[in-house]
Amino acid sequence: MIRLQHLTLQRGPQRLLEDAELTLHAGQKAGLIGANGAGKSTLFALLRGELSPDAGDCQLPADWRIAHMRQEVDDLERRAVDYVLDGDAELRRIQRELAAAESSHDGVAIARLHTELDNADGYTADARARKLLAGLGFAAEQMERRVGDFSGGWRMRLNLAQALMCPSDLLLLDEPTNHLDLDAILWLEEWLKGYPGTLLLISHDRDFLDAVVDHVAHLEQRKLTLYRGGYSAFERTRAERLAQQQQAYEKQQAQRAHMESFIRRFKAKATKARQAQSRIKALERLEELAPAHVDSPFDFRFREADRVSSPLLDLSEGRLGYGDKAVLEKVKLQLAPGARIGLLGPNGAGKSTLIKTLAGELQPLSGRLARGENLVVGYFAQHQLDALDAKASPLLHLQRIASGEREQTLRDFLGGFDFRGARCDEPVGNFSGGEKARLALALIAWGKPNLLLLDEPTNHLDLEMRLALTLALQDFEGAVLVVSHDRHLLKSTTDEFLLVADGRVQGFDGDLEDYARWLVDYRARQAPVTPAAERVDKRTQRQAAAALRQQLAPLRRQAEKLEQELGRVQEKLAALEVRLGDSALYEAARKDELRQLLSEQATLKSREGELEEAWLEALEALESLQARLEADA
Description:
InterPro entries: AAA+_ATPase (IPR003593), ABC_tran_Xtn (IPR032781), ABC_transporter-like_ATP-bd (IPR003439), ABC_transporter-like_CS (IPR017871), ABCF (IPR050611), CT398_CC_hairpin (IPR056003), P-loop_NTPase (IPR027417). Belongs to the ABC transporter superfamily. ABCF family. YheS subfamily. The protein is α/β, with parallel strands linked by helices. The protein folds into 5 domains: about 1-65 and about 170-240, P-loop containing nucleotide triphosphate hydrolases (Rossmann fold), CATH 3.40.50; about 70-165, no CATH class; about 245-295; about 315-525, 3-Layer(aba) Sandwich (Rossmann fold); about 530-630. About 50% of the residues lie in helices and about 20% in strands. It has 21 helices and 18 strands. The chain has helices at about 40-45, 80-85, 90-105, 105-120, 125-135, 150-165, 180-195, 205-210, 230-240, 245-265, 275-290, 350-360, 385, 395-400, 405-415, 435-445, 465-475, 485-495, 510-525, 530-580, 590-630; strands at about 1-10, 15-25, 30-35, 55-60, 65-70, 170-175, 200, 215-220, 225-230, 315-320, 325-335, 340-345, 365-370, 375-380, 450-455, 480-485, 495-500, 505-510. The relative contact order is 0.09. The model is unreliable at about 530-535 (pLDDT under 50).
């Protein structure tokens, strides 16, 4: 298990954790959440052994193998599939030693190393690495390319695949979905659900957390609080705990009054009925959840457009793409005021191509694109963050598009995006990706758009900012067309989906669960057919491996049985030690209970020693037989 006791951790003068406590048992999957800068990544560095506690203890089993997703890439010349295989350090060691043994014609070492290779699933390693890459969106030809040929986001996918390739007892993942599209996230969810070890996950994707974790560790005010369940359960539990606070009550009532006012004004109007319905749904959840976000630093809205055209955009017979290459054919799309559309589709199918065309960054190769007279587009895409003036402050950025406004009005507006005080005047070049994204959204919100085109707007945003963006989009009266891997955002702000796939854009009659099933079928259709000769060769390999396993099976079953029993005894010992750690147990009135627990502990320790000895003997006999069988072969 992982046990943090009275832990104090600081970086420089900033104290991140103080007298913090946390216990995670083997096999648990926990999400680690908290404000940016609270110390989540620093805690990961502590668990990896890169830092030492300033006070208290951080205890992990000494034999645990730890895998983590690196943030840097150190070998640009490596082939992508080889780079992923490097994640299994033990496999690479065996392969190096086997190559040396074969060079020196050391038959005994060759036999032993082939056994080790089989035990490490080395014969299937290349196939497993390629399966990981395929799940994360890499095409077969991309797997053969050098790492340096990929962009930064795709290199992070390679680092994620490398971490998943590493056999581990503890897997530490820091924002693994940041550079993934929805397809890859759905695949990663399924992979992590089947991961047998202990998982600690930092993520700002609430649906991803709900799908994967069974506990949430909340880092707040230098303490760690463990909640049972996923993110939604955490949100409800924390809301209940904070519901009595006056500040939470006042904020909730203000939000309720705003929503009820909107519903009263627009519920009877046909043009506003859909938006009124979305407010009613949001209002139903408000009482339960609002207090959980009482301390959110974000509170903003998109300013209402001065005029509206209908339709806002009308694309017919559109042939869209780059240069002479068409990505989408015969696209027909009309965007009316109040439309709320989510774009779905596999990676590379053309979602961003469609949004760029509608935003005016690309011209249609053919077809007709008519823009409404009063159209005002608010376009968000990741490349726009790089277009921000690195030397200018958030205030100066806003002043450039709002030269006639009072400075205090602009500062108040930026405050809703958590740019306050001196932060309003600092150069953007020093900002994180999340801060740049917030500024880009602030500039769009100020511009009074009547159409929002959003391409992955939640990348780099934390959970509180994602919630604030969701509420602002629910309150937005214009049209929205969004591509996002954040399913909560899609479910909360869109009314219909368009599917972009196979060169076409068409309506998708279903929800996100239906889309996940569609993706499974789509991937099956796209899977390459294995040549017959290759299938025969693989069948021969499997038959040979099966014959070897059949001879080794009795010994292996005995070793596994002993290992399982040993694990059960160790679990009982661990639970017993937790009970013995209760200071109240040592009071005079509980001396009989203490004596019984100490007796159980002694019996279990004795049994643990017997099992360990028997298990090691079984492993030695198994290895000896494997070596003889390999030598005979």
